[in-house]
Amino acid sequence: MIMRILGIDPGTLHLGYGVIDEADGTMSMVACGVLSVSPKTSVELRLFSLYTKLSEIVACYQPDEVAIEEPFVAMNARTALAVGRAQTVAMLVATSQKLPIFRYLPAQVKQQVTAYGGSGKEQVQEMVKILLGLAEYPQPSDAADALAIAICHVHKRQLAKLLNQEVEGRL
What Å distances lie between residue 104 and 66, 68, 109, 146, 151, CA to CA? Predict the structure, then answer.
């Protein structure tokens, strides 16, 4: 059975998304990209635009589950608030389609994808490329991050299945 995962790297100017399919332990990329909005647009219109565009992505690719990166607490308050708003938009889109939501901290994503929670962006991109059998790095980096979030979720699901438990991070 194929499981389709939508990974989301939230941001109010650039929201990365990555869609992967997993079947019998094998992962493949379906799509990835970035939803961008103008910084000149008001916050509420940016969020509405992201909601609309992300809803279209969900309708197009019809994921079974959604994995979203949590805001990193050590970032400045303004950035954390913006990322939190974008994360909320992603959760609303998923919830409106009755999709299960799973949330992961950046260190969890890096740990699951590279086996080191302090990995840099280049290491994450390299492992995403390897794990998905891609010829090139997924671009831009927000899209690669979203694919990494989806891969993290697949790894967590596989581990939970081995341990016969629920996946952590579910809402």
Answer: 11, 6, 7, 11, 11
